[in-house]
Every structure is written in structure tokens, then in C-alpha cells.
Amino acid sequence: MIHPSAIIDPSAKIADNVSIGPWTTIGPDVEIGEGCNIASHVVIKGPTVMGAGNHIYQFSTIGDGTPDLKYKGEPTKLIIGDNNVIREGVTIHRGTIQDQGKTVIGNDNLLMAYAHVGHDCVIGDHVILVNNASISGHVYVGDWAILSGYALVHQFVHIGAHCFVGPAAFVYHDIPAFITAFGSPAEPRTINREGLKRRGFDADQIALANQAYKLLYRRGLQLDESIKEITKLGDDAVIKMFLTSIENSTRGIIR
Fold it and tell me: How far apart are CA 186 and CA 248, in angstroms?
């Protein structure tokens, strides 16, 4: 299942049932889990640890060092979970010692053609990066978030769970959970009702998320006042997730 033209460093650890296409290069300190399918002309550099069932398409570069000028070649890491689909031309960089020293990709994500994941990013599970979406260094992307084509995310921004970021949006500030954001700079538009519905949130929970959104964005309240009013909506998981995404913001939320 390994094409004879593939170049694989002797120190790389490749599970028995991994498929590797022609002209792919796998460097030292790379571990690839069971059932992965690596297409032709892929470059995987280490230290990189990849879980099971991932499919990496042609011309992707995975685990290279960042072009960040702070990076001086230290042996930082890339960790990729299970069942991710990484399409053509995707680039994912390892971390830097100025952060946690690692970039982390969760499970069941779809990174479409030419998407970019910068150094020290953390991507959750079930995330979609549409063609040419790019996230800078130190960015956190919560579970089930979708970044549309050509969306750009500034360094250190947090994208909350279940967010939808519109095409060609430029995200300078954190986006709370459930929010749909469009524009350059990105501005809040509404909650991601359709996404929540598809993921099993019931009508009452979606209504709570909408109430919280209105208190944050439509009542003219200061941020601390909005948080107090949202807290009064109760302790449903939706409210907890929404408040946590606001309270954990380090760059300030979009307004």
C-alpha cells in the first residue's frame, strides 16, 4: 500500500494498513495511525503525530515549521486526531516555543482546498474550513464551527463553538458561541439557527440562544450588563456555553 516512489524516513512510524501515494515525502519523527490514506505529492514533516482514518489529498504540506520570525527551528509538534479530511494544497504548521509548542487538530474535521492553519492553533472537532480559509497563529476554533471561503482570522482570536463565519470575512476579535458573522471586519448578524438545528439542539435551546444574542447585541447594553441579563436566562448548557465563550475572550468580542 506504499508506492515505491514514496520517500519515507526510516524513523517514521507508519501503521500497517496505511496507504501512501507516489512521490509523497514523509520525514523523521512522523507517526501515522491506522487506516490513513495519504495521496500523491504530499509532504509530512515532524515531529507530527497523526491518528487513525485520516485522508490527506495531494500537494498538502503538513507539519512544516512556521515562517513566524520568532521560530528558530525548535522541535515543536503537530498533533492530528482521527478521521480528518485534508484536501488539496492545505498547509498546517507546527507550534512555537513561545506558546505551547504544538498545533492541535481534533477529530472529524474537513479542511478544504488551500486552507491554512497557522502555528499554535487549536481546532476542535467537526470543524469545516472552506477553500482558502486561513487562520493565523495562536487561533482557537471551537467544535462544529464553519469558516467560509477566503475567511481570514487574526492571531489569538477565538472562534466559538457552532459559529458560522461568512465568505471573505476578516475576523479581528473573538466570536462568541453560536454566532453568525459576516463582513470585513466581521460583524455579528444572528445566531446559527440552522447549524444548531442540524446538531440536535431543540427549539427551546435555540430560543434561549436567540434571547442571549439579543441581550448581547440588540438591547444597547454594556457588556457587563449584557452578561448579567444573560445569566438570568438560567443554567441550560446553551447559556453556559455562550457565557463561557464571552468570559474567556482575550481580544474582546465582535460588537
Answer: 19
| Residue pair 219/228 in contact by the 8 Å Cβ criterion | no
- What amino acid occupies position 177? A
- Tell me how far apart the alpha carbons of residues 79 and 83 are, in angstroms, rounded to a whole number: 13
- Which domains are present in the chain? 7-138 (2.160.10.10), 196-247 (1.20.1180)
**Which active-site residues does the annotation give?**
119-120, 137
Q: Quickly tell me which residue has 463553538 as its cell.
A: 161
CA distance 140 to 153: 10
Our measurement of the distance from residue 12's CA atom to the centroid of its chain's CA atoms, rounded to an integer in Å, reads 26
Note the pTM of the prediction, 2 decimals.
0.96
- The helix/strand/coil state of 1 is coil
pLDDT value of residue 1 = 87
In this structure, are residues 186 and 172 in contact, taking their beta carbons and an 8 Å threshold? yes
Residue stretches of the chain with pLDDT short of 50: none
